[in-house]
């Protein structure tokens, strides 16, 4: 699949659309608070970005169209979804772009209707902030990473916990292998802190677990 665009969000209160081949910024969305995360929808005709609950602003999920010709791009949103309660730390699209899945600072996970903006379901199985959400290739389930030192696999429709992988340090990211019954967890501390602490103390490493048996099978430091 050809990747034409890259989207970024920043604490400078902007989200930007970049042309991958040339590195040229083709459009900028100006926001009123920092952009926490971004995600393209399936088919790359829509995208979302989440603005933070700072500077008197509410945490908001902005769904925007992505035009084929960047000259036609506008800053008009398809829908703006105000995420009440704990602020969103990560967001991604659900199956067929019908839903949006969000992870929150208090460890909760929510499913939103992408068209109406209503919250369909919410659960709280993590004790601390969600740092990453990644789907399995068939979208039937996804894995979360959290600062509570665990990663969990959830059913995409019911949000029932299917598997749990426990470590002794915060988990920054987690992913499932598309070809093996393996899960990889990366973490130890925030990536921005790695260069300011000693290698001995930061415990920054990748751990591999068996998908089904939840047992650690290896690690890379």
Give the helix/strand layout.
Elements: E1 5-10, E2 14-19, E3 25-30, E4 35-40, E5 46-51, E6 60-65, E7 79-82, E8 88-93, E9 99-104, E10 108-113, E11 119-124, E12 130-135, E13 141-146, E14 150-155, E15 161-166, E16 171-176, E17 182-187, H1 199-202, E18 205-210, E19 216-220
Antiparallel strand pairs: 1-2, 2-3, 4-5, 5-6, 6-7, 8-9, 9-10, 10-11, 12-13, 13-14, 14-15, 16-17, 17-18, 18-19
Structural notes for this entry:
The protein is mostly beta strands and 221 residues long. 2% of the residues lie in helices and 50% in strands. The protein has one helix spanning 199-202; strands at 5-10, 14-19, 25-30, 35-40, 46-51, 60-65, 79-82, 88-93, 99-104, 108-113, 119-124, 130-135, 141-146, 150-155, 161-166, 171-176, 182-187, 205-210, 216-220. The longest helix is centred in the C-terminal third of the chain and has 4 residues, at 199-202. The model has no long low-confidence stretch (mean pLDDT 93).
């Amino acid at each position: 699949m050809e990747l034409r665009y890259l989207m970024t969000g920043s604490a400078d209160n902007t989200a930007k659309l970049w042309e991958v081949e040339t590195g040229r910024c083709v459009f900028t969305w100006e926001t009123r608070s920092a952009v926490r995360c971004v995600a393209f929808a399936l088919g790359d005709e829509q995208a979302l970005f989440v603005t933070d609950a700072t500077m008197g602003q509410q945490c908001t999920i902005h769904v925007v169209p992505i035009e084929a010709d960047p000259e036609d791009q506008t800053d008009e949103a398809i829908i703006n979804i105000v995420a009440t309660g704990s602020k969103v730390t990560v967001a991604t699209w659900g199956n067929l772009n019908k839903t949006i899945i969000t992870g929150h600072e208090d460890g909760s996970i929510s499913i939103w209707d992408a068209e109406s903006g209503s919250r369909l379901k919410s659960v709280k199985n993590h004790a601390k902030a969600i740092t990453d959400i990644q789907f399995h290739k068939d979208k039937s389930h996804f894995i979360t990473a959290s600062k509570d030192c665990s990663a969990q696999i959830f059913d995409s429709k019911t949000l029932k916990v299917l598997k749990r992988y426990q470590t002794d340090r915060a988990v920054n990211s987690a992913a499932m292998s598309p070809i093996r019954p393996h899960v990889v967890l990366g973490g130890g501390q925030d990536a921005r802190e790695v260069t300011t602490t000693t290698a001995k103390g930061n415990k920054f490493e990748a751990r591999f677990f068996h998908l089904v048996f939840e047992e650690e099978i290896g690690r890379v430091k």
